[in-house]
Amino acid sequence: MVTTAFGAHPLNGPGPLFLLLLALVIDAVLGDWIGRVLPDPAALSRRFCAWADRRLNRVERGKTARLLRGALVVLALLVMALAAGLLVDRIGAVGRGWVLELVVILATLRGRASWMRVRAVRRALEKGGAAAAQDAILPLTRRHAFSLDEHGIARAAVEGAAKAFARKLVAPVFGYALLGAPGLLVWAAVDGADSALGNPGVRHERFGLTAARLDDALNAIPARLAALLLALAAPFVGANLGGALRTMVRDGGKSASFNMGWPTAAVAGALGLALAGPHRDGGVVITEPWIGDGRARATPADIGRALALTAVAALILVLLVALLLWGVAGV
């Protein structure tokens, strides 16, 4: 067994866990600044998929042809991500190569950056109401932001906080802890592909199907782990642990998303809110079930409570990584 703090693989000792713990601490303090300096692998994947979408996803092609082309785009991404991850692993095992691995982890974690985007929505609502917050909510929801009123924006921000905690913090931590840099970069590639191609609608119904299904598979465990962490954080911010657990079990599967209903339900139950639900997309009403049985008239104060909840849940995640590191180091 490797006993150095900078081993090359999680099965070899505490090295990668130490790097992960260090990256989580750095992200918690400087993540919004780091997000402006380091390229996001998921964003690079998203750009590649957007380019491929323009070139390969032609409406005149048949459904099978579009499905195969979309699958080939995802396969190419996976090969590139896996190759890059193995290279990072190889470099990280030599001398000061661990610095590169730390940088890759920091580039992929977007916990604080996402948290700050949600906070920006709250501040915009408090200062200027719905009109001022519509631009701020755009990165956090796939809904038609300019059809949302103040309560709709607040609900979307609370949902965005829950989903970002699952997708931008718990999922990459899980991928790296399980499979090191290759697992981390494969997750980031799929996350970007789903963001670019997994949108509902005729255009991506076939071309984006592989990206959407693979994203569902990779996030199945992290999303449910994130929901549990959010529920466990509830008592520390004066929220309802029992409500979070009940709503998570009852409503976690109601969302159109295979995974994101779970963290959304945990936050809804903890804060006594009703999230998701029917909404307008332009002039069309999209009927979706409510998640949670509390208030639908969410406010900026509820966004603040959601931010506190996700912050404590992130701290619990850090403590879990620290305990895992301590356990592995003590073997």
From TrEMBL:
Record pathway: Cofactor biosynthesis; adenosylcobalamin biosynthesis
Location(s) in or outside the cell: Cell membrane
Assigned keywords, A-Z: Cell membrane, Cobalamin biosynthesis, Ligase, Membrane, Transmembrane, Transmembrane helix
GO molecular function: adenosylcobinamide-phosphate synthase activity
Main location: membrane
Entry-linked InterPro entries: Cobalamin_biosynth_CobD/CbiB
Topology in membrane: Multi-pass membrane protein
Membrane-traversing stretches: 17-38, 67-88, 94-113, 169-190, 225-245, 306-329
Role of this protein: Converts cobyric acid to cobinamide by the addition of aminopropanol on the F carboxylic group.
Family: Belongs to the CobD/CbiB family.
Name by which UniProt lists this protein: Cobalamin biosynthesis protein CobD
Organism: Azospirillum rugosum
Organism placement in taxonomy: Bacteria, Pseudomonadati, Pseudomonadota, Alphaproteobacteria, Rhodospirillales
